[in-house]
Amino acid sequence: MKGEEGAADRVPPRLAPSIEGSFAHKLCAAGYWVEDSLLKKLDSFDRKILMLIQEDATLTTPQIAERVGLSQAPCWRRIKQMEEAGIIDRRVTLLNAKNVGLPVMIFVHIKLQAHGKTTLPDFDDSIRRFPEVIECYTLTGETDYLLKVVLPSIEAYERFFREKLSQLPAVREANSAIALSQIKATTTLDLTLVEM
């Protein structure tokens, strides 16, 4: 254990400006440190920390350190390293959509009129400005985009569709599917799926 803590005392890696936003930077999402061209896989302590804070972001550093078997200082440094590397994106409070009055979830498949140089960026910018859309993905296959829309009622969705979504010039077709019930919803990434 002491050897592990000593290793954690190393100077936290910093992202070089030349690679920030690059492919090497994106490797952080796959479980790697990035320091210039050097890649270091996350170890078991890092993964335990990540699993804990994914389940409960309110845990304090002393609480996390005790659960993973580290002292507070090395544990804090590991968390800071993962924040700086972009592995920890942000810490938020998750709301219950139904309990705050947004019980209707709708998935919308979008086909575009064309795929020109300005069409896609313009559509992306428009979607980002719609607060009703909480997730948006580009897809392979028959449709171009998948939107996840959350609203208080079907009538609210109809207004959103008529007044906003269908008014975007790039949209050729929109097929909506209303979620009847939620079988599973989690924000926790299973890090055991990533090779050590």
How many domains? The number is 2
CATH architecture classification of the largest domain: Orthogonal Bundle
Mean pLDDT: 84
Q: In CATH, what is the class of the largest domain? A: Mainly Alpha
Helix content: 25-40%
What is the count of helical runs?
Answer: 7
Could you name the CATH homologous superfamily of the largest domain? Winged helix-like DNA-binding domain superfamily/Winged helix DNA-binding domain
The profile of the biggest β sheet is: 4 strands, antiparallel
Structural class determined from secondary elements = alpha+beta
Measured between the Cα atoms of the first and last residue, the distance is 19 Å
Compute the number of strand runs. Answer: 6
Q: Per CATH, what is the topology of the largest domain?
A: Arc Repressor Mutant, subunit A
Give the strand line-up of the largest sheet.
Answer: 4-5-3-6
Amount of beta strand = 15-25%
Order of helices and strands: HHEEHHHEHEEHE
Indicate the overall shape. Answer: elongated
Q: In terms of per-residue confidence, which ranges show pLDDT below 50 for 5 or more consecutive residues?
A: 1-20, 35-39
